[in-house]
Design brief:
Elements lengths: L1 H11 L4 E5 L7 E8 L4 E7 L6 E4 L7 H4 L6 E5 L7 E4 L3 E7 L7 E12 L5 E14 L4 E11 L2 E12 L5 E4 L14 H13 L3 H4 L2 H30 L5 H26 L3
Parallel strand pairs: 4-10, 8-12
Antiparallel strand pairs: 1-4, 2-3, 2-7, 3-5, 5-6, 7-8, 8-9, 9-10, 10-11, 11-12
Helix pairs in contact: 5-6
Length: 276
């Protein structure tokens, strides 16, 4: 796991993030449902919604990832109809945004608002004073959220970084599981401890799971390595089929799938052990 984090750390100081939406494409507005904190539901269109599932990176980044990627934003521009006047909705009034990616609403992308906590090098829980809206990857007893950062060279996809977040559905705060904002060469040795502590805080209500967490984290590290190997083999097959056409977006989705898989499996196991 440490070798993987070292690579992520080096990449994070080698690239900057541009808000290129490679999932929706550049759209002036997207159909959406907004679930408000007071229980009301607004249906209409979000203008210039720029919170993609895949974010393109190309130059130098120094911290404050969520804000630079526009996952930390104060307000959204909403219209009930395309011809309606713009209504500005503050982030504090929003609970969840559902993007309807197909005209018939058959494909939905969900984003939840949360405040964030992280773990410092002393193992202490820190409120980072951020309110963000993050893409939901897996919903359950504990929810998984993730930002998938993609890198390109000569306009061709090369690699990705997956940044996971976890939160209980009924809680205000989520946890940054891998906090690149606070990684430096002097605290790389604390990465595994911080990851384990963040996962513990989300899953500690389940004693059978929490008591076995040390062993499970070691298995998790093996799961990450296995998933990366499986993803690499799947991309090799894709390249054979794609030949000169390039595998671009398909390779991007494969890397995302196998990067998020160990976290999804971990939370599945937590849920299975603690059904109530």
């Amino acid at each position: 796991m440490k070798k993987l984090i070292v690579l992520l750390f080096i990449l994070s100081f080698s690239f900057a993030f541009s808000q290129e939406d490679v999932y929706f494409g550049k759209k002036p507005s997207v159909a959406a449902e907004i679930i408000m904190e007071n229980g009301d539901v607004k249906t209409g269109y979000l203008q210039n919604f720029q919170n993609p599932r895949f974010v393109h990176a190309d130059m130098l980044l120094l911290g404050n990832i969520e804000k630079k990627l526009r996952f930390e934003i104060d307000e959204f521009k909403f219209k009930e109809e395309q011809s309606s006047a713009i209504e500005k909705i503050g982030i504090n009034d929003i609970k969840r945004i559902i993007i309807l990616d197909k005209k018939d609403g058959s494909e939905k992308l969900v984003y939840d608002k949360m405040k964030l906590k992280t773990i410092n090098v002393k193992g202490e829980i820190i409120d980072v004073n951020k309110t963000v809206i993050l893409p939901l990857e897996q919903e359950g007893k504990a929810n998984l959220y993730g930002i998938n950062i993609v890198f390109t060279q000569n306009n061709r996809y090369t690699n990705n970084i997956y940044l996971p977040y976890m939160k209980k559905p009924d809680e205000e705060y989520g946890y940054i599981v891998i906090d690149l904002n606070r990684v430096n060469f002097f605290n790389l040795g604390k990465i595994d401890d911080k990851l384990k502590k963040a996962i513990y805080e989300v899953t500690k209500d389940c004693i059978p799971f929490a008591d076995n967490l040390d062993k499970r984290i070691k298995e998790f590290e093996d799961d990450v390595k296995t998933a990366r190997k499986e993803g690499f083999e799947k991309k090799k097959e894709l390249r054979k089929l794609a030949k000169n056409r390039g595998e671009g977006f398909d390779a991007m989705k494969i890397d995302y799938e196998y990067a998020s898989k160990p976290y999804m499996n971990l939370l599945d196991e937590y849920e299975q052990k603690c059904r109530k």
